[in-house]
Hints:
The chain is α+β, with helices and mostly antiparallel strands and about 325 residues long. It has helices spanning about 100-115, 125-135, 135-140, 200-210, 230-240, 260-280, 305-310; strands spanning about 55-70, 75-90, 115-120, 155-160, 165-170, 180-190, 210-215, 250, 290, 315-319.
Amino acid sequence: MTHPLLVSIFLLMTASIPLQAQSAKAIPTGAETKTIPISKADLGTFPYVKTLSNFTPGDSVTIEQNRTYFFDGKTYFTVDGQVSSQELRVKDRTKKIPSEFQIVQTFDQLVSTLGGKKIYEGKLPDELIKKIAAHDLVELGSRHQVAPSAYYGVVEYVIKTADKEVWFQVQPASIGSEFYTLLVVEKQNQLLGTNINKANKLLVDLEHTAKTVTSVEFEPDQAQLLTQSSDELLALVGIFQVHPDWKLRLEVHSAPVGTAEYILDLTKKRAVALKAALVTLGVNPTHVEVIGLGASKPLASNETEQGRRTNTRLEVFKL
């Protein structure tokens, strides 16, 4: 059984030496975060970390939603989500206080054990962030958009689970070694609130028979969704608004427009694109299973235009 994310972090004993910028693998925002492995670890509950008894929060703030800034060694990128901004001060300086190296080492080992990745370690370029965010690091710290005192240098990590990403920005050094700071950002899939004032036929069918059939339009011979499919996408999202715990299987079918191998491959690509569109709208990816079945299960003859339209369909099943 995995253990909750309980972090025992320490404060520096002596004045710190500024972190030196190191090379780091770039992890941009958006679709490319898919390259981060999915962790199955039990992370516990927000903000996921706690300190030893010798430390006490000097200034801690939790914000429901905020835009924060991280650096990958080349560029800044934003992470939006629930934020915990913490400044943790030592209570008893007569007790041993580990070094900056030990603070970083503790996070390195823990995040790695939980299936996360280290994104960056080093100084944050102040002039660059001012061009991007119109504020310097001091101002962004006061706005809880970077870790407090981030100008001393930070270490950044991310752990990605099936339904969220947890980002950490640790500032392990301070003048006089009186505190360290931590920014924790929980980025969750936010389901789009459709609020469409019309009946959701897909929802009604699934509630009654656990199955429904509709059509989703793509570019000819492509996996790119057309804007004509917006109604169907919003209807699918609306199902999860009413039943957030449901899991669905989406089957993409097509009339034969080429060889069997070609159309099977095309429907598989369209199934992947459909799931990606739903995830972008906030649907939990673990709640959607997709499959492309080509032209293997026709409902009507492909000899007529109407028959081909009938066979080019999306079938949705409640699991």
